[in-house]
Amino acid sequence: MKNDDAQTILRNNKTSEHEGGGEGGGGGGGYFGTDVAHTLFCKPSSFSRMSQVNIYFAGSIKGGRQDVGIYSQIIEQLKAYGHVFTEFVGDKNYSGPTEADGKKDKEIHDTDVSMLKKSDCVVAEVTQPSLGVGYELGRAVALEIPILCLFRPNEGKVLSCMIRGAHDGSAVTVVDYTDIVGMHQTPVSDGLLGLSSAPDTSIWRCL
Ligand SMILES: O=c1[nH]c(=O)n([C@H]2C[C@H](O)[C@@H](COP(=O)(O)O)O2)cc1CO
Questions:
Q1: Alpha-carbon distance values, 124 to 45, 57, 138, 148 (Å)
Q2: Ligand 1, residues 60, 62, 95: which to mutate, most atoms within 8 A of Cβ?
Q3: How far is the CA of 6 from the centre of ligand 1 (A)?
Q4: pTM of the full predicted structure?
Q5: Which residues form the signal peptide (predicted)?
Q6: Which tens digits make up the pLDDT trace of 40-81?
Q7: What's the pLDDT at 180?
C-alpha cells in the first residue's frame, strides 16, 4: 500500500452494511456513490450554492498516530473541496499539546467543539480507535452534521459497533476502503465530495 502519494483517492471502498443488511443500505459496493455525496453535501435547500464548505476532519491523536500519513492524504483531498478546520490532525509532527505551546485541554476541547459547530460535514478516519474521535462523532450526530467515517478493515481491526451501527446511509455513512491510490478528481473523489465533473456545476449540486 502506498500511503505517500500526494494526490490520492480512496480505492475499493464499500459502503458499510451490517450483516443481514442495514437499514437504508449503503449504496452498494464499488466506489463512493451518490449516496455519500448526497449525505455530505446535499442537506436540504440550505446547503445549495454555499460559497465555502467547512470540513471537520477527525483522526486519532492520543489514540495513536500510526495513520497520520493517511490522514494527511485525505486532508489534502478534502482541501480541494473546502476549508478543513483541523489540518493539524494530519501533521506528523503533532501529537498533542506540549508545555511549550501552553495549550490547555479545555482550550483544545472548546476550540474543537466550536469548529465542529461551524462545520458543514465531518469526515473521520476511524481505523485507529480514538476516544476523541468518538466524542467528536457523538457531538456531530447531536448537531445533525453529516458524517462520513472511513475504515480500513484490512488492518486487522474491528470497528466499534457504536460507529458501524450508526450507519444509516444518510446522517452517518460508514465506508470500508482498502487503500489510497494516486489519482485526483476522478468519479470516485467526485462522488465522495459531490463534485460534478461538469465544469458548469458546483459541488453543491445534488448528484
Ligand atoms: O491535541 C489535540 N487536538 C485535537 O484537536 N484533538 C481532537 C482532534 C482529533 O480528531 C481528536 C483526536 O482525539 P484523541 O487525541 O483522543 O485521539 O481530538 C485531540 C487532541 C489530543 O487529544
A1: 25, 6, 12, 6
A2: 62
A3: 24
A4: 0.74
A5: none
A6: 444 333 344 455 789 999 999 999 999 999 999 889 878 877
A7: 60
CA-closest candidate to residue 168, choices 27, 13, 9, 2:
27
CA distance linking residue 16 with residue 175, whole number of Å: 5
Domain 3-15+42-176 belongs in CATH node 3.30.160.40: no
**Would the pLDDT of 88 be above 70?**
yes
Rounded-to-integer distance, Cα 21 and Cα 62, Å: 34
Mean pLDDT of 3-9: 31
* 56 marked among binding-site residues: no
Question: Which residues lie below 8 Å from residue 171, measured CB to CB, with a gap of 6+?
Answer: 39, 141, 144, 146, 147
Q: Is the dihedral of CA 130, 131, 134, 139 positive or negative?
A: negative
135 annotated as belonging to a binding site for a ligand = no
Q: How far is the CA of 66 from the centre of ligand 1 (A)?
A: 14
142 C-alpha to ligand 1 centroid (Å): 19
ipTM over 0.85? The verdict is yes
Tens digit of each residue's pLDDT (9 = 90 or more) over 144-156: 999 989 898 888 9
